[in-house]
User: Fold this.
Amino acid sequence: MLARVLKAAVLRGASDVHAKAGDVFRARVEGQLVPLTKQRLTPQQTRALAATFAGLEIEDARLDNLRDFDCSWGVPGVGRFRVNVLRQRSSFMVVLRVIPFSVPTPEGLGLPDVVTRFAEAEDGLVLVAGPSGSGKTSTIAAMVHHINRSQQRHVVTLEDPIEYLHRDLSSSITQREIGSDTDDTATGLQTAMRQDPDVIVVGELRDPVALDRAIRAAESGVLVLAAVSAADAASALVQMVATMLPEEREVGRMRLAGALRAILAQRLVVHPASAGARVPLVEWVEATTSLREALAVGGEAAPFRKAIERAAKEGKGETFAHAMAEAGISASGKDV
Assistant:
């Protein structure tokens, strides 16, 4: 039944599938959560789903202690999925994010050319920001794919979990899953530096030790591509500063200013000419002198936004407002 439901969801272009006790299977299609089935799932059925993804028998007592669990899952001929198993109202719920078999390309995602330019950088830290569901993972996968097909480099990824599977082309891609291939992101970053990397990809940069090691890798001549959950480029920098330990923040800001190469931030919006389809809007900025100076001085959003606007006027960035205007989308339009 699960395979049939997932196939139907993929054929409808769904981005996510929800399975919850007391409800039907639902899929997110073009931003809307729509029903896929008519029969409501029982707690026993969602328990069986949770057991399947956790690799346990349905009667296994360990399942009773399962609260939150992440993994990747593949269905032959259908696709791959990022799975989150959770508890709600004392029963299990499962949310599956659809991951296409094919790795995306920057042009296929409709990303600006500057994305490939940042992927070709020799070193430095490139932050890819956006809220949950905005396509950060796909954008980073597309950047890795661009490197893979056009350069001869060693790329080490640290993912939780592994989503897109990269086949070695011109480059060598080493994919490591947090929790199974390495203990955590910080440890993975530390050991990656002993693995002759040219590029390190961080699936989510969110703790002070990992941030310190990501900056250190960028300082040592490695290109680091890191995802950050933030609404825009300025917010991404605010979050990075806030992540640092208070006693290390002053030096940390200066180190980040020196290592930073660029920031990409994106949103998915419904384009008026796309018949309801969602398209990416990208705000980007190079690490200009004014942005580095603002970062070295403090961690407030206002100076960062002013530096980003200045960079945009100099042709070294683009704000969301300008991207929306170029796409013909009203500033009052609703993000989805």
